[in-house]
Design goal:
34% helix; two-stranded antiparallel sheet; 3 helices; globular; alpha+beta; single chain; three-stranded antiparallel beta sheet
Length: 96
């Protein structure tokens, strides 16, 4: 997979660690890692991406959810932003 691949054609599923409890606080989502004690504060965009990381939603479906939630022009390419956020989740140990 490269960043040049259209996101709508990627069937990659995004699995998060099921053991991480989360709680909505106003527009943010707090995700706690009970193993290391860290709390991750996710802004509304990252929260939508996190919610999509259920192991069932594809990256293309995540793109559609973001477009529904925010006024994003159809010509905007969200692939790099989604993949960067997922990469951040992975570096933080939040994904399986």
């Amino acid at each position: 997979m490269t960043l040049l691949t259209p996101l709508s054609t990627i069937a990659h599923r995004l699995p998060r660690r099921k053991s991480l409890p989360s709680q909505r606080v106003q527009s943010e989502l707090l995700v706690q890692d009970p193993v290391c004690g860290r709390v991750h504060f996710l802004n509304p965009t990252a929260a939508i991406i996190w919610d999509a990381c259920d192991g069932q939603v594809t990256t293309g479906e995540c793109d559609a959810r973001l477009r529904e939630a925010f006024e994003i022009p159809p010509t905007a390419d969200l692939a790099a932003d989604i993949l960067e956020t997922v990469g951040d989740f992975r570096r933080r140990g939040m994904l399986e």
